[in-house]
Amino acid sequence: MTAATTGDDHKHVNSSSSATSEAERRTLFAFAITALFMVVEAAGGYLSGSLALLADAAHMLADVFSLLLAWAAFRLGRLAPDPRRSYGYRRFEVIAALINGATVVLLSVGIVYEAVWRLIDPRPVDAWPMLVVAAIGLGANIVTWRVLGHSHSPGGGHVHGAHGHDHDHIHSQGYHHDDAPVDGLTADAGSAQNLNLHGAILHVLGDLLGSAAAIVAAVVILLTGWLPVDPILSIGISALIAFSGVRLMGSSGHILLEGSPAGFDADRLAARLKAEVPGLVGVHHLHAWSVTSGHPMLTLHAVVRRDVDRDEALARIKDVLEGDFGLAHSVVQIEGDICGDEGCS
Fold this sequence. Notes:
Blueprint: E1 2-5, H1 9-48, H2 51-77, H3 91-120, H4 127-149, H5 195-224, H6 229-256, H7 266-276, E2 280-290, E3 296-304, H8 310-325, E4 330-335
Parallel strand pairs: 3-4
Antiparallel strand pairs: 1-4, 2-3
């Protein structure tokens, strides 16, 4: 039997490392902007009595934590593998995304609770300070959001944080137009969105929408004096962000549970290999998972005819896995008649 990993892993690692370093720098810059304005908005919300501003400041407080957590996860994820952790520490990024998603949901629930009480017992709001601070906050949030979500990655891709999707457009070289990406979130770390970064972007997007809602509420109060608009808008924004937070938690949990990357189709991959690799008669024990977002892994057993050169078959399988499916790291076991593992057919 022959087992091997691809010889091109170092290119994938270098590309991923460059993209992660860029995301790390952007996260740290966004942290500085958010921490500075959080103090300004909290003071404005307290002085004006606006729940929308206080809710936005609470989101920003969570953002400061989430951005710091995301930055720390990037740093820890770069630690080299050791005897106890052969894959290194990249899973810290997924854990950070899970925590950020949960934080968003908890904050949203708290804001909705307070908003309901504001509807039952309305309180006076000083709309002018609310409007000014919210407008400044909107500007700060737009800058932060663009820093995190709209910077070009080193790999030539583009992160579209504004779309609110759990996936981004995949432009990685080697994908054919008729091939679904292996990982719907980040088939290639240099061209799509890191799950850890997605968690940070989600927090900032919540603040951006919160600032916009505070502006609308302030204008309505100034023109009509209708106070319920403030908590009503807070409920709407919180529900939207909570939904996104739940989806982020689901994506993170899926990776932590060793789930197959989104878009992965084992039957389709096996069929493609049989069609492209001469002498390949069967594929089994096929398993796919992600160490972290953007790092899909795969193992499989390939059964070939006895007259087939196994080294050539292995090389061709590797070419198909990387070129057609974007799998830069795979372990392939070449077999004849004997598998030797439990569960072999």
